[in-house]
Write a structure and sequence with these properties.
The chain is α+β, with helices and mostly antiparallel strands and about 260 residues long. The chain has a domain at about 5-35 and about 70-195: oxygen-dependent coproporphyrinogen oxidase (3-Layer(aba) Sandwich), CATH 3.40.1500.20. The chain has eight helices and eight strands. Strands 1, 2, 3, 4, 5, 6, 7 and 8 form an eight-stranded antiparallel sheet that branches. The N and C termini lie far apart (about 55 Å). The relative contact order is 0.15. Bound molecules: 15,16-dihydrobiliverdin.
Length: about 260
């Protein structure tokens, strides 16, 4: 349906530029379906999960929810390994009975740091300005989420599906291409203090997203509480379950222990 071309494009494009390995998806999460509604209005809601990793990217994962014309969601996030200061690639593409809601960004580890902004936000601004006229600010945005978004955050609620299929799709491609350019040139961080800051920023982001996941209510309704919490903490936002840390980091940590 609506977001399948986004997912197909992302996977094909990443395959063309990265050496993707599979990232394990816990049992029970690759595919999950439920039947909702009554009488003639029943609808199967299918959620599929997709996940990869590379030498620089800890987890590339997508959750794709398909429940008919009025329920389509693609949540796609790239979590870099903890020894890179890369931003997160974050796309939340949501179609509900009330309309479309699009969030697209390279979510910064250090939002207000000028050096970081110069490295990871300024190069994106021309792309942002290219699409912004077609994708105006979507309004109503949780204030507490602000630190997690860059000044190049595309946040929009298109009233036409065709806008999603054209401008949003083009913006998605452009952001992903630019993200992979960052990945190409990224080099490992070795400074222990910076590594600690990166880990703290990743945990801050992850905990916020797991705690505030706007899809929690929807998933609970379809698949129950237990499945939902496990999906959120065991797959969607799993960093804390994925200890030990990358070996370079772990070695440094262990080195200071008696
Ligand atoms: N959002 C997720 C995941 C989803 C998902 C993992 C797998 O983070 C879907 C599914 N997002 C989803 C759904 C809704 C939203 C809304 C189903 C609609 C919820 C509803 O209306 O019932 C960006 N997504 C939103 C909203 C925002 C985002 C701001 C509106 C929420 C609201 O108005 O309260 N993306 C979201 C976000 C961050 C991000 C908050 C924070 C860092 O990256």
């Amino acid at each position: 349906m609506l977001y399948q071309p986004f997912l197909d494009y992302a996977i094909d494009y990443m395959r063309s530029r990265l050496h993707l390995s599979p990232y394990p998806i816990p049992p029970g999460f690759t595919e999950k379906s439920a039947i909702t509604g009554k009488g003639k209005n029943t609808e199967t809601v299918l959620t599929t999960s997709h996940a990869f990793q590379t030498d620089k990217l800890r987890q590339i994962r997508a959750a794709h929810v398909q429940g008919g014309k009025a329920l389509q969601v693609l949540n796609f996030v790239i979590f870099p390994r903890l020894n890179y200061d890369l931003p997160f690639f974050g796309a939340d593409l949501v179609t509900l009975p009330g309309g479309h809601l699009i969030a697209l960004d390279m979510q910064p580890l250090f939002r207000d740091n000028p050096t970081y902004q110069a490295k990871y936000t300024e190069p994106i601004l021309p792309i942002f300005h290219q699409f912004q006229p077609h994708l105006p600010w979507g309004g109503d945005f949780p204030e507490e989420a602000t630190p997690f978004f860059s000044p190049a955050f595309l946040w929009t609620r298109p009233s036409e599906t065709s806008t999603v299929q054209t401008h949003v799709f083009e913006a998605f491609k452009a952001y992903l291409q630019a993200y992979l350019d960052f990945v190409d040139t990224a080099t490992p961080v070795t400074d222990p203090l910076y590594l600690e800051q990166i880990e703290a920023a990743q945990l801050r982001y992850l905990r916020y997203r797991a705690e505030k996941d706007p899809a929690r209510g929807m998933f609970k309704r379809f698949y129950g509480e237990e499945w939902t919490e496990e999906y959120i903490h065991g797959f969607l936002f799993d960093l804390e379950r994925q200890k030990p840390l990358p070996s370079s980091l772990a070695t440094q940590k262990w080195a200071v222990q008696p």
